[in-house]
Amino acid sequence: xxxxxxxxxxxxxxxxxxxxxxxxxxxxxxxxxxxxxxxxxxxxxxxxxxxxxxxxxxxxxxxxxxxxxxxxxxxxxxxxxxxxxxxxxxxxxxxxxxxxxxxxxxxxxxxxxxxxxxxxxxxxxxxxxxxxxxxxxxxxxxxxxxxxxxxxxxxxxxxxxxxxxxxxxxxxxxxxxxxxxxxxxxxxxxxxxxxxxxxxxxxxxxxxxxxxxxxxxxxxxxxxxxxxxxxxxxxxxxxxxxxxxxxxxxxxxxxxxxxxxxxxxxxxxxxxxxxxxxxxxxxxxxxxxxxxxxxxxxxxxxxxxxxxxxxxxxxxxxxxxxxxxxxxxxxxxxxxxxxxxxxxxxxxxxxxxxxxxxxxxxxxxxxxxxxxxxxxxxxxxxxxxxxxxxxxxxxxxxxxx
Amino acid sequence: xxxxxxxxxxxxxxxxxxxxxxxxxxxxxxxxxxxxxxxxxxxxxxxxxxxxxxxxxxxxxxxxxxxxxxxxxxxxxxxxxxxxxxxxxxxxxxxxxxxxxxxxxxxxxxxxxxxxxxxxxxxxxxxxxxxxxxxxxxxxxxxxxxxxxxxxxxxxxxxxxxxxxxxxxxxxxxxxxxxxxxxxxxxxxxxxxxxxxxxxxxxxxxxxxxxxxxxxxxxxxxxxxxxxxxxxxxxxxxxxxxxxxxxxxxxxx
Lengths: 401, 253
Description:
Radius of gyration of chain B: 16 Å
Number of strands of chain B: 9
Order of helices and strands of chain B: EHEHHEHHEHEEHEHEHEHH
Helix content of chain A: 40-55%
Strand content of chain A: 15-25%
Largest interface: A-B, 43 and 45 residues
Distance between the termini of chain B: 26 Å
Strand order of the largest sheet of chain B: 5-4-3-2-1-9-8-7-6
Number of domains of chain B: 1
Structural class of chain B: alpha/beta
Oligomer: heterodimer
CATH superfamily of chain B: Aldolase class I
Number of helices of chain A: 15
Radius of gyration of chain A: 19 Å
Shape of chain A: globular
Shape of chain B: globular
CATH class of chain B: Alpha Beta
CATH architecture of chain B: Alpha-Beta Barrel
Number of helices of chain B: 11
Distance between the termini of chain A: 58 Å
Strand content of chain B: 15-25%
Largest sheet of chain B: 9 strands, parallel
Strand order of the largest sheet of chain A: 3-4-14-9-10-13
Structural class of chain A: alpha/beta
Largest sheet of chain A: 6 strands, mixed
């Protein structure tokens, strides 16, 4: 795009703002409000205090001794975002944006959710701050992440099912954007991943930077050196960008994003936007220019993943830039490998990962034996798997009552 | 073949191409023109129409499911131009299909069809550099949307980049019918008037003769979209063109 030089919110060629004109004033207002809040010590102090006392930060960087021994290669460390209040990294961003919304005087909050973790985090923050909350969620996702639907409703949020399209995350975002266009004067949209029109990808990343800021200090303290590689799952890419960001200048630290390989490499069977054949090409979906799974005519493809949080046709624009520059590499992991990794981590470490995070664990399991014993492999364990018990019971044929 | 509103208020008719099928869309468009539509907005169906309400969402979904592509819509535009040389013809699309074709290729092919202009729903003026260059090279009119929420500085940029007409969105929200024309609309048109002599067409929620009359009091043209698409949805394909012709003829009654 020729305007890239003058437009804020570009990550190389990617990012930008591609929205209906009705939203532009709101995005400009948001950009200005965020720039102000970001530099306001009082805002940052309140956020830090809540992240510490309400959410439980800093999260541990845990040495997974038994998993390391079993794999016989690199030392594996888990950044325990799964231990955060509400059970995933999503609360970092939901809390930041919730405080921003309150500062902007917006009393009505809307959000989309895929796996339900961002929805739960947003509903939680709305309860905490006393704000009205509407969550859009695809019907398919409501069924497969039903526990999170109950949680959101218990927290006082209204959950609206979306039946359009594939009835997953993409369709929930479209519906949330329609709500925002309609109620833009009174409503704040807490977008849950490093996606969408500027300033969202930058803002969401900033709220998750704390992951890599903590991890860097913790790794230096525990091992006296930086990790050899960092592995994180990538749906929209918020936990991954948070885990990568402070390490980007450290060229020796490998950054590895893991996409959903689903059932196989055919378009429609996965959500691996960066896959060489049958993957995405640059385009515009829901406000930003990035890699998009689409057909030859530019229609957005259906996607599949066992994990609702990774089941999305596009990817955050900053990841598109890191991909093209080669600073980060992106691989994919199949549904089956993610399910196996869930069992492995549960039984070696007593940690049940979210199916999303299990994609990163699976890549670590594949990678660690190929690395030296002196290497350090950090996995961003972005969420816990309690929400997935329904899927796991079925997929793993677990016995209940 | 230029965009002109001969009678006041002018009528812009939006159709989702390929719903129920391309041949029927062609017949419907011809009937619309013959019954008083000054401009046809030929909508390229898209899988994820996030600015549209349920009526146009359903039409897009049906047309996409039938396999309707941007290339098909360009073919249809060419046929319409050949059949009705004097009618205004604007291609209406979300950005991604045009981007997938390549912006330069898309503009070149749009010009070859004989279309007068293009409106891209999710293209804002700040991002439009390459698009505008290609549009100018092919003498196509870029039509941009102006919203009630757009501050004056944005309106100025929007009218500066637009040709043919400016599309004023009558209210905040997505496409779809409503009871009466929102008060936002006349205020927006008044603000736009300070910056441009281009014709101003008001759309979103304009669905009957009363609305068209109300719009005619402060703007140059009315855009009818969801009301037409809904009528097509409930008509048998063979009857759709006649139904739309009759409906459009009644709008300026």
